[in-house]
Design a protein that fits this description.
single chain; alpha/beta; Rossmann fold; 3 domains; 6-stranded parallel beta sheet; 4-stranded parallel beta sheet; 17 helices; globular; nucleotide-binding; chlorophyll biosynthesis
Length: about 425
Amino acid sequence: MTEQTPPPPTTGCRTAPVLKQRGQREVFCGLTGIIWLHRKIQDAFFLVVGSRTCAHLLQSAAGVMIFAEPRFGTAILEESDLAGLNDAHAELDRTVEQLLARRPDIRQLFLVGSCPSEVIKLDLSRAAERLTQQFAPKVRVLEYSGSGIETTFTQGEDACLAAMVPVLPSSDTRELLVVGALPDVVEDQMLGLLADLGVGPVRVLPAHRIDDEVGIGPNTVFALTQPFLGETHAALERRGARHIAAPFPFGEEGTTAWLAAIAAAFDVPEETFTRVTEAPRRRARAAIAQAAAPLRNKSVFFFPDSQLEVPLARFLTRECAMSAVEVGMPYIHDAIHGPDLDLLPQGPQISEGQDVDLQLDRCRAARPDLTVCGLGLANPLEAEGLSTKWAIELVFTPVHFYEQAGDLASLFARPLRRKAILSPRVEAAE
């Protein structure tokens, strides 16, 4: 790649035809978001109202040791609950009372719906209202759905944050609200950059604790750090907040464009912006150039999974010299994904939704150098000789902003490096 970021394409993909498909999907469920949210919101507890399968998913995904006491759990729906032999609301109230008696440090309790609770039509909204009245003001009880019936795995965070927005206090203060859960080290880097630019006050959603939460009002402006927050975006706009549209902060280009949009909204002088960003931009470009060598002139195919696909395709094509064959997204939201689509050069098929068999046919026909997909598709495609990258790894790994730009490129380069190392050994064995 060149030392400088290439100029924007003459024609991007924002107005490109979108292949819309509805069929069998291959995605993780939204319960997975609890794995990073329970670490981020430190006075919260996430109680999944679901089956033993839900409990096993969370335990295995989080790698929780048997003697650990994490801030999530499952209220198990037994056969008698599913058959309607028990009063599910009474059973839930009893479970919550036991939990709060055992864990007096809980300030926020999230009742998380699952496939089983939705199938039996358990009204968690009514339960949350009832329990809030019972335990307020010490504990706030909210509910959202993490069911995999209609959601992808990152939409669990979106549903959680969207549930928080209506109960945030009102405020007329002009503030920047940065929305989306980030690893603490990445969040600190982001806040440091914004402070050096002179942008403030800056608040974060989700806050670490309920006492740190921000007020929302007509003078609030917000910037998203995650491209899967469509419902949260809508909830904030209903409260009167204004969205700062920008590409997402992946890589040097995305981070600079994200910061520039905020700087423009807060009238940051151009010389200040250049002074603050020049050194980290240079480091990011150097790190990407080194890590992305195996990616140059290679092709990539994105299955719809994490909703990070559009900004990641922009990063790989413009900063790592890859070509995109297809960029699949579970959902495309113009106000959120439009700025990245503007920068994505025309060429790839943009698809929304999924019919997994048809998409597998297109992937096999294209034989891309790298396929980004979910866990359920990766092993079969690897067996067919296609190199894959797990989409879920891109959510669990720190990849935002300048200092992680090289790491982001390395995540995509690793499968190709591994294949290059293994191929001579396979040929020798044959």
